[in-house]
Amino acid sequence: MSNKSSYKMSKEEKAFLQSYDMSAFDRPSLTADIAVFAILKPKESDEYRKDPEQKLGILLINRKDFPYKDCWALPGGFSNRKETLHDTALRELKEETGVDNAYLESFGIFSTPGRDPRGWIVSEAFLALVDGSKTKVQAGTDAGDADWFTIDVSRTEMKRNVLKTKAEIKTKYEMIFESADSGESIKAVVEETKIYDNHHESVSYEVLDSGRLAFDHAEIIVRAFKSLHKEADDAGRIIFDLMPEKFTLYSLQEAYEIVLGEKLTTPNFRRKIAPFVIETDETITGVGHRPAKLFKRNLEAFYE
């Protein structure tokens, strides 16, 4: 990325920089962690269904080295000196999924002291959405197996104390991860605390049970899931990045329902989504019911 500027350094400034001692300050290592979501379908589907049941999946990596050996973690890695953290995320995503053009957006910085036993490590976390049918998962240099897990998130409000100008709300998030390939099951619990003081919000998280998730990745996953849910609820178009190039309206609606956690009224959904899709002349075949029409995204509606 180029950075052109009309600013010119003076001789005095150049001399100052030449003598500046960066070692006088502690410096963290920088990493990128990526919450990669996809819509997963069972390997063996019911031939009498128009579409097989879909579930939300997340990519996890089994660590082969310490720390957290044999635990599961999000894909990611350390940033190189000459790349941005976004570049780091793109590189790691390509290495571990084979995808280089996915939706990829930052959603948070994680810098709690002690979050990584190796030292002072600050991570920028990214939300990535991919077409699960086109990914080829593979482990990186510090990982064993890479696997897709279905993820189910339940939310329980534990405390709500609302006063005139202050409020405290505690919410517990329970996550269940299941691997269809290995049968591995993981449960993690994270508590979110929201404090409102004079209507200003502050949010903190505590991992109550990390299961077999490494580092603070249970918290990162909760926040990634919340980011995905909010984006889907606010704009909606983000869900298209979870779909293949061509899809049925049934599968598209089911993807929305999976992320939003609620059933949608089909006529209302199709009316709302109509500007964003184009009907093709193809149908899905090999099913027990009447073939369903295939659609693709209307790219013009996505360019603003």
Provide key terms for this protein:
6 helices, two-stranded antiparallel sheet, 12 strands, ten-stranded mixed beta sheet, 304 residues, single chain
Q: Could you provide a short overview of the structure?
A:
The chain has 304 residues and is an alpha+beta fold. It has helices at residues 11-19, 85-97, 217-234, 249-260, 266-273, 299-302; strands at 29-40, 55-63, 72-73, 76-78, 103-110, 121-129, 143-162, 166-178, 185-197, 200-209, 277-284, 292-297. The longest helix has 18 residues, at 217-234.
Write the layout of secondary structure elements.
Layout: H1 11-19, E1 29-40, E2 55-63, E3 72-73, E4 76-78, H2 85-97, E5 103-110, E6 121-129, E7 143-162, E8 166-178, E9 185-197, E10 200-209, H3 217-234, H4 249-260, H5 266-273, E11 277-284, E12 292-297, H6 299-302
Parallel strand pairs: 1-6
Antiparallel strand pairs: 1-2, 1-4, 2-3, 2-7, 5-6, 7-8, 8-9, 9-10, 11-12
